[in-house]
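User: C-alpha cells for this complex, please. No commentary.
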Amino acid sequence: MILVDNLLIILFFSLILGACGEPVERLPEYELSGQTMGTSYSIKLVAPDQNLDRQTLGVKLSARLDEINSTMSTYRPESELSRFNRLDSTDWSPVSTELCALVADALEFSERTDGAFDITVGPLVNLWGFGPDGDIARPPADAAIADALTRVGFGKLHANCDLPALRKDRADVYVDLSALAKGYAVDQSAELLETHRVTDYLVEIGGELRMRGHNALGELWAIAVEKPQDDTRSVQSVVRLTDSAMATSGDYRNFFEFEGRRYSHTIHPKTGRPVTHDAAAVTVVDKSAADADALATALLVLGPEEGLAFAAREGIAAYFLLRTESGIEQRTTGEFAAMVNL
Ligand code: ADP
Ligand code: MG
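Assistant:
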C-alpha cells in the first residue's frame, strides 16, 4: 500500500512522574508490534485480562492487518483494489463489503471537503513518484499532469454498498486509499482488542493512533507530536488523550526536492500538483482513526487559511504546524485547544 516509508509522524511515550509524592504503581504493559502497509505498528496493552492469550491475539491482529492490506493496498498487484483498478470496464463490479464501505466513506469525505480529499487522485500520486511505481527526480511535464487530471475526480467513481459494487465512469480511473487506510487499520485493530475485552490500549500504525483507558501508570496517554523537520526527529508538543484517535499528515517525510522547491505526497486534486502553502503538518483528533486520517489529509490539501476555516466551521479538532521565516508556528481550532494544553 502506498502507506509510504516509515512515516512515524508521532512518537509516543509514557512520562514517569512521581519526583514528588507516592511512588506510582506501574501496571503490567505488553506490546504487540510488527510491520504492515510499508510501515510499522505497535500496540500497547495495559493490564489485560489474565486469561488473555496474547500470542493468539498477536497472530489475529497480524492476520487482520494482512487481510486489510490484501483488500486495499495499491502496492499489492493482487489486492482487491488493484484488481478493480485494472478492470477494463465501466460496469458495476462486485466487491467486498469492506472495500465498498471504505470507498463510500471516502466519497463522502470528498463531498464534504468539496473535492480536496479525493481517492481518485491515484494517477497523479503515481505520476509524481509517490505510488507503487517508485520515485521520480524532477516534476512531470505539464502535458502528463493534464492527461492524468482527465482521469481524476470523485464524481467518476460510484459505490452501491447494497450490492455491494463499485463502478467507474472511465475504465482508467484509479483509486488510491492510502490517505485513510492506515487510520482504518488502526480502528480495526482497536475493535479487535475490544472484542478481547482489552480496555486500556494504545494502537499506532505508521503514526496514526487510537487509544482507550489509561497507560501503565493510570494516566491519560501522553502523545508527542513531532516537529516537522526532514532530518531530525524531535518533539513539537505533547498532548494527553484518551478514548479518541489522532492522525497527522505532513510534507516532511515523503517528498523530493527539485531546483530548491519541495514536492510532497499531498496532491491538490484540482491543480494536479503537490500542495504549495506553508502548512507543514496537520494533526486531527476524532473518535475514529479513519476519519482523523482522511481529515488530516484534507486539511493539508486545503492549507492554513481555508483548512482552518473549514475545521472551525465543522467543529474539527485540528492542529496546524506552519513553516514560517521565524520557525514553526502553531494554529489550532478551539476544539483542539480545549482538548489539550499546548
Ligand atoms: P501518510 O499516509 O503519510 O500518513 P496521508 O494520510 O496524508 O499521509 O496520505 C497521503 C497519501 O494519500 C499520499 O501518499 C497519496 O497516496 C494519497 N493522497 C495524496 N493526495 C491526496 C488527496 N488530495 N486526497 C486523497 N488522497 C491523497
Ligand atoms: Mg491521511
